[in-house]
Amino acid sequence: MKYFGTDGFRGKANESLRVEHALKIGQFLGWYFGTKLGRKPCCVIGKDTRRSSYMFEYGLSAGLASTGADVHLLHVTTTPSVSYVTRTGKFDFGIMITASHNPYHDNGIKVIDSDGYKMDDSVLAEIEKYIDGEIEIPFSADNVGRCTDFLQGRNQYISYLSQVPLHSLRGYRIGLDCANGSAFTIAKTVFDMLGADTYVMGNEPDGTNINVNCGSTHIASLQEFVKANNLDAGFAFDGDADRCFGVDEKGNVVDGDAIIYIGAGYLKEKGNLVDDTAVVTVMSNLGLLNALKDLGIKTVITDVGDKYISKEIQEHGYSIGGEQSGHVIFDRYATTGDGILTAIIMCDIMVAKKTMFSNLTRGLTILPQKLKNLAVPDKDAVMKDPEVLKYAEELNKKLNGTGRLLLRKSGTEPVVRIMVEAQSDADCEKYVRETEEFIKNRFY
């Protein structure tokens, strides 16, 4: 794809992603779905707190209305809420304006289908053709849509989240880091409704401070916040709140791998883990795979990217899947990763087990991990080289389940990613260095 990647059309605002792109995306979607359905299509749009999100919202809205679509504006809200409202409100599609965990000067446009999943690549490919002038669409004074506020959609989502847990959080002190992003309109309200004593940070967005020293990409801020306020647990979200990291009462980080361990283990305990299987990626820590195996849980391993996890869950009906980055899908409740939902489920498990958050990760030992991006003349040649493949196989045999080497090529850069897990940081450093030297000797 030329414009759309694994997570939408993303780039620096006013440079690689401009308002005319938003206008054309809106124009195409309004025309495409109107033609396909034979009626006026309806959609929802949400956005995060970036300053540029407003101009993209207006550009998309104008484009959509100009080709007959009726637009319902959720305004500042989370990506999972757009997915939920699109699916349950029977809208034809949804759009979220966000660059997730990126800095404020970046932005992005995610298109969601009527079932709440990412739009099929075939439709995105047609959008790209229209952007590049390869497709022409008609405009008519008789075919104009309208744009209306739809704040009740966000309220319906809040109500839904409040009904997910089986237990009250009354008496629990919970910290939330909203990353100065879209979670600030929803997260505290939900946890207050659940009875928690809610402490919030990262809830003063100004259009430029999204993800700045806060949120799931800067977890140290929440660690300090939890310890300073003597909290039972803390949860940090990213800019559009589809990811979640936890912090236990001792200040330890509970990342996506740990969340999958807790969630899958509890589902199995209750007999609700489909096929006793969790979906993880090739970057999930070997310690997680070993710990799940000890619980009698099988793992299906996909490539990196939430769309691959989502596809695996859709095709086989698995209960849970996710990434180390905190993007976790609980299939019973959502079609996409949902940071606030994940935080609620973690709290519900903590209350159900009548224990502290730190006790939920007992049995999980995360191995030290080191990742190195190595620039190479030809990444495909490296990944197909028989000597490199033989080297990786022999090292993995040597580690014999106590660690591993994983080589991956970047999808966007001329680099090969060297990832090593081992019993110590020193071993990780050693094997990464040796692997880097081996590849350099072969290709430089």
Description of the molecule:
With 444 residues, the chain is an alpha/beta fold. It has three domains: 4-153, Alpha-D-Glucose-1,6-Bisphosphate, Chain A, domain 3 (3-Layer(aba) Sandwich); 164-361, Alpha-D-Glucose-1,6-Bisphosphate, subunit A, domain 3 (Alpha-D-Glucose-1,6-Bisphosphate, Chain A, domain 3, 3-Layer(aba) Sandwich); 369-443, Alpha-D-phosphohexomutase, C-terminal domain (TATA-Binding Protein, 2-Layer Sandwich), CATH 3.30.310. 38% of the residues lie in helices and 21% in strands. The chain contains 14 helices and 19 strands. It has a seven-stranded mixed beta sheet with strand order 1-2-6-5-3-4-7, with helices on both faces. Helix 6 links the parallel strand 8 (173-177) and strand 9 (197-201). Helix 5 (151-162) packs across helix 6, helix 8 packs across helix 11 and helix 13 (386-399) runs antiparallel to helix 14. The longest helix is centred in the N-terminal third of the chain and has 19 residues, at 19-37. The radius of gyration is 23 Å and the shape is globular. The model has no long low-confidence stretch (mean pLDDT 96).
